[in-house]
Amino acid sequence: MAKVLPEDGRAHNRSLILQQLFHAGPVSRADLARTTGLTRVTVSDLVASLMSEGLVTEMGIRSEGRVGKPAILIGVRPDAFEIVAVDLTDDASMHGAVLDVFGGVVHRRSTALGGRTGTDAVDALLDLCRELVALATCPVLGVGVGSPGVIDADGTVVEAPNRGWYDVPLATQLSAALDLPVHVANDANVAVLGEYTYGGASGSGLLVLTVGQGVGAGIVLDGALVQGHRHAAGEIGHVTAVDERDDAEGAPFGSAEQCACGRRGCLETLLSVPALRRRVAGLDPSATEAALAAVGQRLGIVLAPVASALNLFEVVLVGPPDLLDGPLRDAALRTIQERTMPVIGSKLRLRMTALGEDGALSGAAVLVLSGQLGVS
Questions:
Q1: Which of 241-250, 289-298, 323-332, 353-362 has the lowest mean pLDDT?
Q2: How far is Cα 143 from Cα 254, in angstroms, rounded to an integer?
């Protein structure tokens, strides 16, 4: 077992202070001591250090009428830094933004991929990052990137077929070119971090399902991101949802379709945005509702064992509300509840994201906050 060094304990305590300030807003030193469990002396020492770094500042006196000396509030400086975040989920374009300390978008930029893959796509990403860094008006804490594919802890894209990236050390390459810390993670994992940190989601048992050109999932259990063996946790889009038996029984999906992964009948062949658009094209409202409900039922069948195995509290859908928020979501929740124990299914929430289209950008910012400051 590795020895815990004093500097490790200090870094942990520093992160506790910053997390409390990010999530609770300005509080007093005494409040920080109570909520973190640290001594007042330790809190005062850490706050002084953070103030010298320019990360936090005193923000006036608490206005409430308490007996004794008024408490001075401590908060994160709004102009302490900015973060560059990039979302690569869209196959057609790369979307990026400069975000402030609290995740608010300050500037946006997008660039069309134009079919570029491999090294050309990396060059396009680097150009977008350089443009965003130049727009920042505060020191840039780092760059966060949410990318499709399997990505390891070092930010290497192990496999992202749609980008033509295989074993690409994306974080290392971008960091060297930008002279900034760069953090890269799977786009679904980034989305779940954004929902957990900025979207008000519970971290006790959270699954965020991203629905776009493909389908993926990010999972947070007991406040920690689930990575899995070889960093491939959450590849739920490639679970078989329609098989030969379904075809024989006359399921409303026709033959199991070929998936990009090479197999047939994956959830992605039913639930991806292109698949859903094709399914409802030309249908009247009643038939559209029935078609979406059928897909929702199949999604519920796939999610039920996941919800039971992980004891999920909340499932959040990220994607077009016109397709997901209605018959599809209702049917999915109903099916999960029918197929799980009441202690699990009856309390499960299944809702749309609270962050809209900026969820992935918010999550990419969390990558930087976590990697550079220990905040999540």
A1: 241-250
A2: 44
Q: What single-letter DSSP state applies at residue 123?
A: H
Q: What is the pLDDT of residues 153-177, one digit of tens each?
A: 999 999 888 789 999 999 999 999 9
Q: Which two tokens stand for residue 83?
A: 């973060």
Rounded Cα distance, 262 and 343, in Å: 37
- State pTM to two decimals: 0.83
CA-CA distance, 42 to 33, in Å (whole number)? 8
CB atoms within 10 A of CB 179: 8
CA angle 185, 187, 192 (to 5 degrees): 95
Partners of 109 in beta bridges: 96
3-state SS, the chain, equals CCCCCHHHHHHHHHHHHHHHHHHHCCEEHHHHHHHHCCCHHHHHHHHHHHHHCCCEEEEEECCCCCCCCCCEEEEECCCCCEEEEEECCCCCEEEEEEECCCCCEEEEEEEECCCCCHHHHHHHHHHHHHHHHHHCCCCEEEEEEEECCEECCCCCEEEEHHHCEEEECHHHHHHHHHCCCEEEEEHHHHHHHHHHHHCCCCCCEEEEEEECCCEEEEEEECCEECCCHHHCCCCHHHCECCCHHHHHCCCCCCCCCECCCCCECECHHHHCHHHHHHHHCCCCHHHHHHHHHHHHHHHHHHHHHHHHHHCCCEEEEECCHHHHCCHHHHHHHHHHHHCCCHHHHCCCEEEECCCHHHHHHHHHHHHHHHHHHCCC
**CA–CA distances in Å: residue 208 to residues 54, 148, 187, 295, 314:** 34, 15, 11, 18, 8
Query: Per-residue pLDDT tens for 294-339?
Result: 999 999 999 999 999 999 999 999 999 999 999 999 999 999 999 9
Compute the distance between CA of residue 282 and CA of residue 117 in angstroms, rounded to an integer: 34
- With beta carbons less than 8 A apart as the criterion, state whether 205 and 221 touch: yes
Q: What is the pLDDT of residue 4?
A: 41
pLDDT per residue over 3-15, tens digit each? 444 566 888 899 8
